[in-house]
Amino acid sequence: xxxxxxxxxxxxxxxxxxxxxxxxxxxxxxxxxxxxxxxxxxxxxxxxxxxxxxxxxx
Length: 58
What we know:
By secondary structure, the chain is mainly alpha-helical. The protein has a domain at 26-58. 69% of the residues lie in helices and 0% in strands. The chain has helices at 9-19, 28-56. Helix 1 packs antiparallel against helix 2. The longest helix is centred in the last third of the chain and has 29 residues, at 28-56. 2% of the residues are buried.
């Protein structure tokens, strides 16, 4: 099975990319946008994990 087909792969890749952005040269607003996006993707990732665990319990 292709690992890109697993649940959460794209969320993980997007989060990794955001975390690797050098924010030192960005404006304060752009840095804030990156922080918010990373926080939201972390929340989505957590929700996907919870959903996967609850569906496997059935």
